[in-house]
Amino acid sequence: MYLDISSGGDVFYDILTNKPEEIAFVSPDKVQGCDIEGQRGVVGSMLCWNYTLDGKRQTTKEIIEELDEKNHKIVKKVIEGDLLGDLYKSFKRIFHVQPKGDAHLAVLTVEFEKLNASVPYPTTFMDFWLNVTKEMDVHKTSQ
């Protein structure tokens, strides 16, 4: 998914790597908290998310697999939580920001393996993530 954003890639990269708990202040109806295990902003650190998706409280624990500050890219692999087990065998979130003329484009990607053919595609989760990204952008541009 792609989203035109007003904030630069460095803003999103900083929040997602060094200050992810700020997202709970920006989107409290969607994200209730984020705990960090390990050192902030380094490959191998883990983020434990508490969020509400489709009216249901959920948790997800993910590990940072790749960071590319120059290209504002973050790759996180889900290792525990509500996305795994009954739905997906594996789930990975990829976020990066690329220039688009004088503006910026947020690119949100998921890689996943469904547990079986009856499991739906994660469109609800992607919409959720897109909306959180929009709220982050509005919040940062209004400061």
Explain how this protein is built.
The structure is a single chain. The protein has helices spanning 9-18, 22-26, 123-141; strands spanning 2-5, 31-37, 46-53, 56-68, 73-81, 88-100, 103-114. By secondary structure, the chain is an alpha+beta fold. 24% of the residues lie in helices and 46% in strands. It has three helices and seven strands. The model has no long low-confidence stretch (mean pLDDT 90). Residues 4-143 form the Bet v I/Major latex protein domain. One of its GO terms (biological process) is defense response.
Secondary-structure blueprint:
Layout: E1 2-5, H1 9-18, H2 22-26, E2 31-37, E3 46-53, E4 56-68, E5 73-81, E6 88-100, E7 103-114, H3 123-141
Antiparallel strand pairs: 1-7, 2-3, 3-4, 4-5, 5-6, 6-7
Brief synopsis:
This protein is α+β, with helices and mostly antiparallel strands. It is 24% helix and 46% strand. It has helices spanning 9-18, 22-26, 123-141; strands spanning 2-5, 31-37, 46-53, 56-68, 73-81, 88-100, 103-114.
Order of helices and strands: EHHEEEEEEH
Main sheet: which strands, in order across?
A: 1-7-6-5-4-3-2
Number of strands: 7
Total helical elements: 3
- Give the class from helix and strand content and strand pairing: alpha+beta
Strand content: over 45%
Shape: globular
Poorly predicted runs: none
Radius of gyration: 15 Å
Share of helix, binned: 10-25%
Question: Could you describe the largest sheet, including whether it forms a barrel?
Answer: 7 strands, antiparallel
